[in-house]
Design brief:
293 residues; alpha/beta; TIM Barrel; 8-stranded parallel beta sheet; two-stranded antiparallel ribbon; 37% helix
């Protein structure tokens, strides 16, 4: 097995521990590589729907510098139809098992279903990335608490099927802050240690263009929780709204990198991206010219 050195122990300032002794440090920006194993992904058109192809893509992202691989079997795009747990399990488990045979890189399972999360953790996943912040499946909190895995709590207004149908906020950043406050308290009552929580404001999930840009400009607001912040801006539609020259998601690389770098400068600890090599390169260049990130 190829061992991944996340960081030297003396450099680690803040970490999330995994159950097997590995740690996820947050003294530097982390890149989470997106691996959608669906036949109808908005960003890649289902390129990695087959387990073998998906596993090869994961290996490629690891070589490119990804710190985490995020595997999702159900596309949460606006208007998407939900799939059953068994279909999702059939899509993600062979990929998790294949990656785990070759590498100990942290694996995140992108799901809101407790059964999928539980089986994924048994197969080798380390993190639960729940777009519903443990709201869609009442059993999910128990899975996270019992398995003692880190969990990403994402904010979303509504559900994937209708989240972009006229979303509205009186105070977007303030309302997300209150949402995080409530969900952190819920986790505490459910037996989930606060040290295991990662916050995601949910760019593009029930948000208008103005909401997305306001969130990115005010990420420091969420640092008051003293928890890691994850941001997913990669190839999202708000980039096409700002620069409407090409409607294809895969062509929004420049805007994706710009938004990711801004997010890091404003306090994000993890950026969730499709274009790993390009994002890693951009981060290295910014650091090399002594820009604080």
């Amino acid at each position: 097995m190829q061992k991944q050195v996340l960081n030297r122990p003396e450099e680690i300032k803040a970490v999330i521990p995994f159950g097997d002794g590995r740690e996820l440090p947050f003294n530097r920006p982390l890149v989470m590589g997106v691996l959608n194993v669906t036949p109808d992904s908005f960003s890649d058109g289902g390129k990695y729907a087959k387990p073998r192809t998906a596993a090869r893509r994961a290996t490629e992202m690891i070589k490119q510098g990804a710190n985490i691989i995020d595997i999702g079997g159900e596309p949460p795009r606006p208007g998407a139809e939900p799939i059953d747990a068994e279909t999702e399990i059939e899509r993600v488990i062979p990929v998790i098992e294949s990656i785990r045979k070759k590498s100990d890189i942290p694996i995140s399972i992108d799901t809101y279903k407790a059964r999928v999360a539980e089986i994924a953790i048994s197969a080798g996943a380390d993190i639960v990335n729940d777009i519903s912040a443990l709201q869609f499946d009442q059993a999910m909190a128990d899975v996270v608490a019992i398995c003692k895995v880190p969990v990403v709590l994402m904010h979303m207004q509504g559900n994937p099927g209708q989240m972009q149908q006229d979303p509205h906020y009186d105070d977007c950043v303030g309302e997300i802050r209150q949402f995080f406050r409530d969900r952190i308290e819920f986790c505490k009552l459910a037996g989930i240690d606060k040290s295991k929580i990662i916050l995601d404001p949910g760019i593009g999930f029930g948000k208008r263009l103005f909401d997305n840009t306001e969130i990115l400009a005010n990420l420091e607001t969420f640092k008051s929780f003293s928890l890691p912040i994850m941001i997913g801006v990669s190839r999202k539609s708000f980039i096409g709204m700002i620069n409407p020259t090409d409607s294809k998601a895969a062509n929004r690389i420049g805007g994706s990198i710009a938004a990711a770098l801004l997010a890091i400068q404003n306090g994000a600890n993890i950026v969730r991206v499709h274009d790993v090599a390009e994002t890693v390169e951009a981060i290295k260049v910014i650091k090399a010219i002594r820009v604080e990130i």
